């Protein structure tokens, strides 16, 4: 029997609601694999940890995270902790830093043709969109030295070459995976990485561009590198999302935060977007990671069963894939989600939450995914 240790951190507001659904899905996976035990430990982070312990994450939780094979995370924050010092959000940043989970993979994908209706972009422009933002997760303005006074605030936006280098290896690996699975007619002969920076303004941006260019020349000749300024990248993503299809968007912490929420805008909801924050290179064996939706704690809809659990469930699938190398199970979870969301005329169940124009409750989506998944894993 193989035991895999998972630290479960549901967090605040919709965090516990969507986590409950993901854990049902985990139960189904476990029931299908008598040789595997998911050993779960649940704890607090964010606002609920401030309430309980006076800080957004305790040393004990950080140590548990280090001792786990993976962390499944919900979302944190909310208006009741406005002005808290430290903030609930800083608990998540400490966690990313402690695990050195430097590579944040945030896929942007129209999962099925019938979901183009959720996007505000014209169907012919958005149908078939698929790229992955690879966001640097442990450096930049988020972690540089801070100064805060009543009338002044500063964040040191600093990168070192080694931080850009290690992310570039991940971006290249992601680009190779996307290229290999893309329809032949939709890609050129080489995988593509788009690097987004502000080399025209920021010294850290010029370092980013130099380091990225150098390591691709030196180590990654099989992948094509394209540079784009981050502001125009944001515009192009909305205007012409498929320009980036089947490629990895290699970018820094702050730009990656914004570009991945733009991904939510392209799709039409944040409720579908998962993420993996990895401490290693995907495809090179299992690595530790933090798995969480791109979205936040959605206080505007919490407590009503309205949240879409799909982003959390797809984050769980990423955990199965990258931390546990359970590719078959990961793919089955994704397939079950597609079946639940898809229209009846396409053979789906069309069970969707309000953000996708449906009427289903959070738990109804979770239950439906479990039911379909049971069938898929039995087959
Ligand atoms: P948000 O991502 O929580 O919500 C933005 C919008 O998307 C809201 O209208 C919300 O209702 C909707 N939405 C989000 N998740 C959804 C889901 N699963 N289903 C349906 N609709 C969904 O962003 P915000 O409102 O700017 O931030 C709220 C709090 O969350 C803040 O405290 C912020 O700091 C925090 N936050 C936390 C994380 C995290 O835990 N990783 C990420 C982003 C924001
Ligand atoms: C995200 C969030 C976090 C970030 C916050 C809550 C610290 O917005 O995961 O995208 O800025 O990274
Ligand atoms: K989250
Ligand atoms: Mn964000």
UniProtKB/TrEMBL annotation:
Q: Which domain of life is it from?
A: Eukaryota
Tell me which EC number(s) this protein carries: 1.1.1.85
- Alphabetic keyword roster: Amino-acid biosynthesis, Branched-chain amino acid biosynthesis, Leucine biosynthesis, Magnesium, Manganese, Metal-binding, NAD, Oxidoreductase
Named in its record, the pathway it takes part in is: Amino-acid biosynthesis; L-leucine biosynthesis; L-leucine from 3-methyl-2-oxobutanoate: step 3/4
Quote the record's cofactor note.
Answer: Binds 1 Mg(2+) or Mn(2+) ion per subunit.
Q: Would I find Magnesium among this entry's keywords?
A: yes
| Subunit comment | Homodimer.
Function comment: Catalyzes the oxidation of 3-carboxy-2-hydroxy-4-methylpentanoate (3-isopropylmalate) to 3-carboxy-4-methyl-2-oxopentanoate. The product decarboxylates to 4-methyl-2 oxopentanoate.
Supply the name of the protein.
3-isopropylmalate dehydrogenase
**The species this protein was found in:** Bionectria ochroleuca (Gliocladium roseum)
